[in-house]
Amino acid sequence: METDGGAPRFLTYFRVRHHEMDALGHVNNAVYLHYLEQAAI
């Protein structure tokens, strides 16, 4: 069985701020939880 993903049900954009990244430009794992909380609001 093959399914078509279709259009996303919800889409939001977040700007990654400088203090959310480490020296190598990776976003901190805890920040992803904050993004999910903000998307749920």
TrEMBL record:
Residues 12-38 form the Acyl-ACP thioesterase-like C-terminal domain. Pfam families: Acyl-ACP_TE_C. This is Acyl-ACP thioesterase-like C-terminal domain-containing protein. InterPro entries: Acyl-ACP_TE_C, HotDog_dom_sf. It comes from uncultured Thermomicrobiales bacterium.
